[in-house]
Amino acid sequence: MKKIIYAFATLLFLASFSNNTFAQKNKKAPQLKTFQDSVAYAYGFLIGNQMKDLKVDKEILKGGIDDQFGNTQRITEEQAQFLMKKAQQERQRVEKKKTEEQGIINAAEGVKFLNENKIKEGVGATPTGLQYKVITQGTGPKPLATDKVKVHYEGKLLDGTIFDSSYKRGTPAEFGLNQVIKGWTEGLQLMNTGDKFEFYIPSELAYGKRGQRSIPPNSVLIFTVELIEIVKK
User: Fold this and answer.
1) Sign of the CA dihedral 8, 13, 17, 18?
2) Of 137, 163, 168, 195, which residue is most buried, by most CB within 10 angstroms?
């Protein structure tokens, strides 16, 4: 939704202040003289972006729009709705299959990584399979599962992709240990305040088969975590 709003606002800005440039670069295209012109272009731009991802034929797409504006039709509205539903179901089927296949690959890579990592010097492991390494030792108290903590952290995938970082935001995060993934709930209870650990979290202690936003299914996660303080209630 944010991307759509941003694209729409950008289009209105460009349409209002850059009509001359637009016309020079594309003389055949109609100029955006009014607000309604800009709105019409914005609709077309966003619809075109969606359709481009679906790899539809632009001329056939344009034909459907022309028929609608000309009050002619080659199919009924009910047929159109049926076709859209079938297309959506097919996209979901393809996406589900793709996700499942990627999940199988990620699971195998995760097992391989954890088996090799656990025998490295300085790496410890818990009975649940959580692995950790002490980077810096602190002297403060350990938190309980019911405590709220303040931490700095960075999360990475096995390929090195950073998917989240409080360091980049410049602000530590605060949360209850019973409100996060299992690997965090367990791992932070191993830490003293002032500690800095690296955690290697199996997918079953993270986001599992479903994944989460930028985290693919069955992903082992690597977190660098610095326990700053236990937040007083």
Assistant:
1) negative
2) 195
